[in-house]
Amino acid sequence: MPTAGRLFAAFAMAIVGYMTAEAFKPQMPEGTVFGFFSIASALIGLVVGWRTLGPDVSRPGAALGSALGVAINAGLKAAIVLVLWALLIFSFEEMIQLAFRKTYKSPMEAIVGVVQLALGFAERMLVVDVLSVVAVGSIIAAWLAVWAARRWH
Fold it and tell me: How much is the CA Rg of the chain, to the nearest whole Å?
């Protein structure tokens, strides 16, 4: 059911997804073609905000806690979900490209390749710039969503 908390969460997490993608780009090798990477990250953030963060801040029990406590808890959860979905989606997309180049000999090797690609992307994410954007941005997004949920409940 659409609520103000879900709406604010969706748009705020879309911005967090976009900003995280922009912070991640310098960590990739020179000459990497990104295409719709930032837009796709924003769409992942939109879905995570609507499906994960929005319900967390809009549920009746969230009104009992302090706004900051609810925002930190829900924001960090949304940040983890955003990163995991982005790693899975972009690793799978990269695996498909490598599979069309005949890099893998079997389907099982391609599945293992998704995990290896995801671990490689995660390793590149472990820098202060990217982690701070996703963590602080998600907490701010959650705080805005908590505010909206309480304001228009």
Answer: 17
CA distance linking residue 91 with residue 48, whole number of Å: 18
**What is the distance in angstroms between the CA of the first residue and the CA of the last residue of the chain?**
13
What is the per-residue burial (b if ≥16 Cβ within 10 Å, else e) of 54-89?
Answer: bbbbbeeebeeeebeebbbbbbebbbebbbebbbbe
Q: In this structure, are residues 52 and 75 in contact, taking their beta carbons and an 8 Å threshold?
A: no
- Residues with Cβ within 8 Å of 100's Cβ and at least 6 positions away in sequence, in order, are none
Overall domain count for the chain: 1
Q: What's the domain range around 14?
A: 4-151
Nearest to 52 by CA among 8, 9, 21: 9
pLDDT string in tens for the chain (153-residue length): 789 999 999 999 999 999 999 999 999 999 999 999 999 999 999 999 999 999 998 876 665 567 788 889 999 999 999 999 999 999 999 999 999 999 999 999 999 999 999 999 999 999 999 999 999 999 999 999 999 988 887
